[in-house]
Amino acid sequence: MLAFALRRVLTLLPLLLLVSVVFFAMLRLGRGDPALDYLRLSQIPPTEAALALVRQQLGLDRSLPAQYLSWLADAVRLDFGTSWATQRPVLEDILQALPATLQLAGAAMALVLLLGLPLGLLAALYRDRWPDHLTRALAFLGVSLPNFWLGFLLVLLFSVQLGWLPAMGREGPASLILPAIATATVSLCVTLRLMRASVLGVLGERHLVFARARGLPERGVIARHVLPNALIPPLTTLGLHLGELLGGAMVVEMVFAWPGLGRYALLAIGNRDFPALQGFVLAMTAVFVLCNLLVDLAYAWLDPRIRLGAKAA
């Protein structure tokens, strides 16, 4: 297990290198003049002398490979440059915004696990009865709602009409409720449907008949034989769900003025803030890889066949 984890961590380095190369080239080969964007954000008149000076200071007068190698040498030392919009180091901005995004994604993931898995189990155990029909209808409705539109509806109902919860900002636990619900809804509904299908597949297996024939109570059969096997398919998608939560949180953070990485990235896109965008993409790539590593380890822990296959190999 430790060797598997180390191999996956080592794959992070070439992946980050590849992502940095592709994204660096995409930014530089796009339309527009980065020097002009820098002057606009700095509120400096774009004269010919100012443009020439900025191109020299930012290294834009050099070839694209030389620019990338210079940036990479600094990035290895965790120096991702200075944001053109905030005039602060990009790493400092990312570390300042990352806790808010992780808090939002963590709360949304908690909702997915605490509601999606039990509701999926309930729908499967009461197949073709009213709990099944109700949860399936709610899941269909939840998947059909865009998270930003759901966010506006939640603000309209709970903040404007009822006045129960704050509409914007990150001021306390209450301000986390609405953005977490808006972020988690789609993933929660997908997990519910997947858990239902997985449980139904396990309920049809033969070993459950023998377990009941031995006199095991129904709760014991479900807890010991149904759940461990039914959890494997939903667990394998948790890494994808986390990516959806982090990606979906970008728009939700703008709706709720949540000071996280998604809002930081969208503002950087609007400002064409190249250093901020490059740092954001690398940070998100690292988070995705590490989260998928944790999912793979949990998958191997739940399914002994994976561990046996690793030992045999």
TrEMBL record:
Keyword set includes Manganese: no
Record-linked InterPro entries: BPD_transp_1_N, MetI-like, MetI-like_sf
CDD domains cross-referenced by the UniProt entry: TM_PBP2 (cd06261)
Intracellular or extracellular location(s): Cell membrane
Transmembrane segment boundaries: 104-126, 138-164, 176-195, 238-259, 279-302
Keyword entries, A-Z: Cell membrane, Membrane, Transmembrane, Transmembrane helix, Transport
Gene Ontology MF term list: dipeptide transmembrane transporter activity
Membrane disposition: Multi-pass membrane protein
Keyword Protein biosynthesis among UniProt keywords: no
Pfam families: BPD_transp_1, BPD_transp_1_N
Domain ABC transmembrane type-1 intervals: 98-299
PANTHER family xrefs: DIPEPTIDE TRANSPORT SYSTEM PERMEASE PROTEIN DPPB-RELATED
Family stated for the protein in its record: Belongs to the binding-protein-dependent transport system permease family.
Name of the protein in its database record: Nickel ABC transporter permease subunit NikB
Taxonomic lineage from the root: Bacteria, Pseudomonadati, Pseudomonadota, Alphaproteobacteria, Acetobacterales
